[in-house]
Specification:
Blueprint (H helix, E strand, L loop, with lengths): L1 E3 H5 L2 E2 L4 H10 L3 E6 L1 H4 L4 E11 L2 E11 L2 E7 L9 E5 L4 E2 L4 E2 L3 E3 L2 E3 L2 E2 L27 H8 L7 E5 L10 H11 L3 E2 L17 E3 L1 H4 L5 E8 L8 H9 L7 H12 L5 E4 L7 E5 L5 E3 L5 E3 L5 E5 L2 E5 L3 E2 L11 E8 L2 H11 L4 H6 L8 H16 L2 E2 L3 E4 L8 E2 L2 H8 L5 H10 L3 E3 L2 E3 L10 H12 L23 H15 L10 E2 L1 H6 L19 E2 L4 H13 L4
Parallel strand pairs: 15-18
Antiparallel strand pairs: 1-13, 2-14, 3-13, 4-5, 4-7, 5-6, 7-12, 8-9, 10-11, 16-24, 16-25, 16-26, 17-24, 18-21, 19-20, 21-22, 22-23, 27-29, 28-29, 30-31
């Protein structure tokens, strides 16, 4: 899970430096795998002013430039088409490492003329894929100014630190930036900003309806929502959105697709958009009969097996439910009417389908771990609002089938017991504040977990939450109290004492003790009167240990045979 520092601060009001945030995340159980700070690789680049740009005598495409830098006027050979006098550029002096070309700049001759540095493009500095020319800085930034300082003032997204954390399968809520911010706020590293989703009023009735087959409402897809938005313009997404997606390794595609990807990482709410003009009739969520084929967005053809969940229109399958949409109804730059989907899919069914089809997608990764069922409709509303802001259009009424699953459950909250189990002093009011900050609802001595925490399944999980927020690094060793004063009495029974004495005596006489497994294979057990179904394990660790042994002799004979084969007998 990757996110940028500025993205985190959209949800968390904090002034903590990235180093402190990273350390705290690991302490909270969200292990930080890496922190990438672009400013580190750009710290040696400075701003220069091109004074002259003359044609190279031996190369038509090269310019011999005189550049004013913090180290005086330098001669730099440049092949960029926009190299000319009067522009402010980014200079790499000899000895500077340029990450985009994996090269350390040296003084050298190019077609017989010395070059003392390099003027860089955005691609050469790994700022973007732009490489048609060198960077031209607007205005008149001072010569010699560090380029990172200029970026911090004019384009901070370019040097936004990127944090990558490892998420364990039991923490699906941390697959969204907001969930991570919530943990940090509970620790006291800032204040969680409010996240309000206001419903968008529909202006017309959606011509596309949705229906969930009864077989899937119980287990599969209990809740499906959607709405049609007409008259959208699906162009490039705004620069801030592109910068965020690029920072976490995603390729910006179009405004509509980028918006759905944004919500996947922002609040752990996977979405999908259909080209409404391609959808024929209504959408039906149903189990596949088996044998249907669909070309997915990854341009691969998949054959569905019986029971796999699929979204179909009147013409056939349009999406592998909860995993990947179909290419046929995918949005393009020509799309003007879209149908936005937000649904909740059963984790077990999604995991099984994904494994069988060998599809790995962000949607599958999240649905098979569990997303917030109560955020299905709010997620649709939030995405609708962003689509209207960035793409325009007119929204329909929401169409829906089913309802969110009931996640309400409660576990006993006993501060004194929790303090004993954790092993350190945590005042009751601090424990209550911790749970409330994590989204728990407290009613008397019962704690109700939030809908986005499917991993909370008992009182032990309450202890864990309070302990990790309090920080287990604060634990101090304690001497365990004896139940009785004085020297501890022996705990071996007389039978155990006699057996131990017999073992020592027999070993002293030169014998070896043979300890064999209590389970053997069926044929061996049958040879000695065993092997019945009553003595068979339901889940043996191997076929050679499937049945309880009827006698010690089979195991002893097998041990003797193994020893003889190895030359020990």
């Amino acid at each position: 899970m990757k996110f940028t520092l500025s993205w985190l601060k959209d949800h968390l009001d904090t002034s903590a430096p990235v180093e402190e945030i990273a350390e705290t995340l690991t302490d909270l159980g969200l292990e930080v795998e890496s922190v990438t700070n672009p400013a580190e690789r750009l710290r040696d680049f400075t701003i220069g002013l091109v004074l002259e740009a003359e044609k190279h005598p031996d190369a038509d495409r090269l310019r011999v430039c005189k550049v004013e830098t913090d180290q005086g006027v330098k001669q730099i050979i440049c092949g960029a088409p926009n190299a000319r006098a009067g522009i402010r550029v980014v200079v790499a002096h000899p000895g500077t490492y340029v990450p985009g070309i994996d090269t350390t700049i040296q003084v050298g001759k190019i077609r017989g003329i010395e070059s003392h540095g390099m003027m860089c493009s955005e691609k050469e500095m790994e700022l973007s894929e732009e490489h048609d020319g060198i960077i031209e800085l607007p205005g008149e930034p001072p010569v010699g100014m560090r380029f990172v300082d200029w970026l911090a003032e004019h384009d901070p997204a370019k040097i936004d630190p990127v944090i990558e954390i490892a998420i364990t399968p039991n923490r699906p809520d941390a697959l969204g930036v907001r969930g991570i911010a919530r943990d940090l706020a509970a620790r006291g590293l800032g204040t969680l900003k409010p996240y309000e989703v206001k419903p968008v009023e529909g202006r017309f009735e959606s011509p596309i309806k949705v229906q969930i087959d009864a077989a899937l409402k119980e287990k599969g897809c209990p809740h499906f929502t959607g709405r049609l938005i007409r008259g959208v313009k699906n162009g490039p997404s705004p620069q801030w959105l592109q910068d965020r997606l690029k920072a976490i390794g995603l390729r910006p595609i179009s405004a509509l697709v980028d918006i759905t990807n944004f919500f996947t990482y922002d609040v752990n709410r996977p979405l999908h958009v259909f080209d409404a003009d391609i959808v024929k009739g209504n959408l039906r969520i149903h189990p596949a009969k088996g044998g249907e084929e669909i070309v997915a967005l990854d341009e691969k053809t998949y054959r569905l097996e019986p029971g796999m969940m699929v979204i179909s229109d009147d013409a056939g399958p349009e999406s592998i439910a909860g995993i990947m949409g179909g290419a046929h109804s995918g949005v393009t730059e020509k799309t003007v009417n879209v149908f936005l989907e937000s649904a909740w899919w059963d984790p077990v069914t999604i995991a099984a389908t994904g494994r069988k089809l060998k599809i790995n997608s962000d949607a599958r990764y999240r649905f098979e771990r569990g997303v917030d069922p109560e955020f299905t409709l709010p997620g649709l509303e939030a995405a609708t609002r962003m689509i209207l802001e960035l793409c325009g259009g007119e929204p329909s009424d929401v169409v829906a089938d089913g309802a969110p699953i009931d996640t309400d459950r409660a576990y006993r909250f006993d501060p004194e017991r929790i303090e004993r189990l954790v092993g350190m002093s945590i005042p009751a009011e601090v424990q209550r504040a911790t749970l409330e900050a994590l989204g728990f609802r407290l009613e008397g001595d019962m704690a109700h977990p939030p809908s986005w925490r499917p991993d909370i399944q008992g009182e032990a999980d309450l202890v864990e939450e309070i302990a990790r927020i309090a920080s287990l690094t604060k634990l101090q060793g304690r001497v365990l109290a004896r139940p009785e004063p004085g020297v501890a009495r022996p705990i071996l029974t007389p039978m155990q004492k006699r057996a131990a004495a017999a073992r020592r005596q027999v070993a002293a006489l030169g014998y070896n003790e043979c300890v064999t497994y209590s389970f053997i294979d069926r044929p061996s057990a049958e040879m000695f009167g065993g092997g019945s179904d009553e003595t068979m394990l339901e889940n043996p660790i191997s076929s050679e240990m499937s049945h309880m042994r009827p006698d010690l002799l089979p195991g002893l004979l097998q041990a003797a045979a193994r020893n003889q084969a190895r030359g020990f007998a």
